[in-house]
Amino acid sequence: MGCSTILVFLTLLSFASAHRKLLLFLLDGFRFDYIDDAELESLPGFRDIIGMGVKVDYMTPDFPSLSYPNYYTLMTGRHCEVHQMIGNYMWDPKTNVSFDIGVNKESLLPLWWNGSEPLWVTMTKEKKNVFMYYWPGCEVEILGVRPSYCREYFSVPTDQNFADAISDALEALRNGSAEMAAVYYERIDVEGHHYGPWSEQRKSALKELDKAMSNMITQIKNKGLQHDVNVLLFSDHGMTDISWTDKVIELKNYINMSDTIQMKDRGPVVSLWPVPEKHTEQGQAALLGERHREEGGLAERLAWLRQRADGDEGHLPRIWARFQIQLPCASHQIRGCLQRHVQPGRSAATAKQWLLVQGGVHAEEHGCPRATLHTERLCAGTDSALALLAAVIPKQCQSVLPAT
């Protein structure tokens, strides 16, 4: 897991409007190259959107390149160690409760979500109405605030659920019930994980998604929303093919589990809480072994993360263990397994995101030609990619990211 993602902005007009409403799509697990030039030949919906809009070549996910951390990075504009949504599985040592990829009731506790303010909370505080459909966390009270409407997530929303959500979101934007609507789509991720990123099942899911995009464009025109709505589509991560049999490391075979209090997550990153006497450089080396410790491009960043965990506790792990290629674990039943050979740094080609935007912001006038945007740019200060495009909150829309 942890591959390139997408970001696309569909532009219908050649002038900018400071009062447009915003329709967001989070397309889970959507690799940046699922809609490259060759693939677009058979995807008329995405082809039309890109033809009318702005497509960023790719974005690099924040570390770690997992779903929940990047859901929140995109919506808060903060790095994961700041907003503290640092994994799909987390543990809070103070309360001894766990976050298990959003499926257990404890995942809805505000303690996991209060580390930073997401865009929908900012908008709600600004007296703007936000309607959210299957969006992870929309049912949570964050910093004392909930969106105006939340259609809660369940596993897994169908294509018909998604189509209905688009229709309902557009109607809410048309009739003035909402200034922003946000819709989550999961099937691309599910089929990719089950069958592989280039499987027929994943491609079939993309065909259905493309039909929904074509229908969305038709509805926007039929409802007369061409001049009133910006549309932003993005993903959290991509994924890559793996060999299950020889590319998995199960940590229980390499470390003494009695030296740990807790171990969480699986895949590219595993979070460890060692017993106190092991929480030293020497203890980490003894626990994991030198070859299992973070090295390379993110060494300084992870050292800072460990220092932050020392300083203000919270639910940040004491140790993040990571290897050198982006490969998930062998079994859904086994936690604490690690991939081998994760490339250091954040620029591996298979670790990119995707962004597509349609709306009233003219790309050339605002310095946003088709270009590469890195997460560092998207996370500068309190601005996220979404805040830059949320024209309904002018104070968060004053700057436009320069091309790299």
TrEMBL record:
What's a Gene Ontology MF term here? glycerophosphocholine cholinephosphodiesterase activity
Q: Give the main EC class.
A: hydrolase
Q: How does it sit in the membrane?
A: Lipid-anchor; GPI-anchor
User: Keyword Coiled coil, does the record have it?
Assistant: no
Which cofactors does this gene product need?
Zn(2+)
**Catalyzed reaction equations:** 1-(9Z-octadecenoyl)-sn-glycero-3-phosphocholine + H2O = 1-(9Z-octadecenoyl)-sn-glycerol + phosphocholine + H(+); 1-(9Z,12Z)-octadecadienoyl-sn-glycero-3-phosphocholine + H2O = 1-(9Z,12Z-octadecadienoyl)-sn-glycerol + phosphocholine + H(+); sphing-4-enine-phosphocholine + H2O = sphing-4-enine + phosphocholine + H(+); a 1-acyl-sn-glycero-3-phosphocholine + H2O = a 1-acyl-sn-glycerol + phosphocholine + H(+)
| GO CC terms of this entry | plasma membrane; side of membrane
Instruction: Identify the EC number(s).
Output: 3.1.4.38
Q: Which N-terminal stretch is annotated as signal sequence?
A: 1-18
Q: Where in the cell is it found?
A: Cell membrane
Main localisation, per the record?
A: membrane
Identify the Pfam families for this entry: Phosphodiest
Q: Name one GO biological process term.
A: lipid catabolic process
Could you list this entry's UniProt keywords, alphabetically sorted: Cell membrane, Disulfide bond, Glycoprotein, GPI-anchor, Hydrolase, Lipid degradation, Lipid metabolism, Lipoprotein, Membrane, Metal-binding, Phosphoprotein, Signal, Zinc
Q: What does this protein do?
A: Choline-specific glycerophosphodiesterase that hydrolyzes glycerophosphocholine (GPC) and lysophosphatidylcholine (LPC) and contributes to supplying choline to the cells. Has a preference for LPC with short (12:0 and 14:0) or polyunsaturated (18:2 and 20:4) fatty acids. In vitro, hydrolyzes only choline-containing lysophospholipids, such as sphingosylphosphorylcholine (SPC), platelet-activating factor (PAF) and lysoPAF, but not other lysophospholipids.
Family membership noted in the UniProt record:
Belongs to the nucleotide pyrophosphatase/phosphodiesterase family.
UniProt name for this protein: glycerophosphocholine cholinephosphodiesterase
- Could you tell me which species this protein originates from? Gallus gallus
